[in-house]
Amino acid sequence: SSSTFLRGDQTYAAAGGAFVSLATHAGNVDIANVTFDNVFSDTYTRYMMMVDYMLPASANVEMRYNWRKSDSSDQTGGYTYSGLELRHGATDTYTAGTGNATNAGVLTHNIQTGNGEHGVRALFDIYRPGTVDGNATMHYIVGRGTYRSYDNDAAQAAHFYVSSNNYYTTAFTGIKVYFNNGNVNSYKIRMYGVIT
User: How far is CA 175 from the centre of its chain?
Assistant: First the structure.
């Protein structure tokens, strides 16, 4: 059986583990990206990134990410992803396989923006690489969430599911999230280590 408890404001119990607060970034002034450096370590093999909201300054944009290296530079190249957006009367897929790996991972399809909107609201599981049964594993991110779709019916909420990895087995130490065009208008994002 599992129990739920709160210890201070740092650790939250959940079935099968607990969340340990590592960092929070929030603001309402346009910035180019939201970056978490030096949050991934050997302490945890799994992390949770909770996007309370991330609003784009421009419409018709994708949410993207780059892994960050220990020297606080971006990993460019080697990203693959497979995503599905479900919206009013339609579905959209967005993919990049190993044969056409890209310089960034794409987490969403086309997002609308506007006054009163809150952009992307999502949960992302992040799996840190390690060696399992003698095999090196990659850094994975798996997400699900919602946003207002730019396509078709601009007032329609879309929901999405996505998985992505970088085929290098580097143990990256952070992540940068941003939109492919324009700034981040406002945001509140929390990073947790997951005790498993």
Answer: 8
CB atoms within 10 A of CB 72: 12
Give the separation between CA 63 and CA 79, rounded to whole angstroms.
14
Handedness of CA 88, 90, 94, 95 (dihedral sign): positive
Pairing of strands 63-68, 105-106: antiparallel
What distance in Å separates the CA atoms of residue 128 and residue 47, rounded to the nearest whole number? 8
| Pairing of β 46-56 and β 184-195 | antiparallel
Distance CA 59, CA 183 (A): 11
The tens digit of pLDDT for each residue in 3-16 reads 444 444 455 455 55
Beta-strand runs (E) in the chain: 6-7, 11-14, 17-27, 34-36, 46-56, 63-68, 79-87, 90-96, 105-106, 120-127, 131-132, 135-136, 139-148, 157-166, 174-179, 184-195
User: What's this model's pTM, rounded to 2 decimal places?
Assistant: 0.88
In this structure, which amino acid lies at residue 174? G
Q: Pick the closest to residue 40 from 121, 141, 119, 158 (CA basis).
A: 141
* pLDDT score, position 6: 46
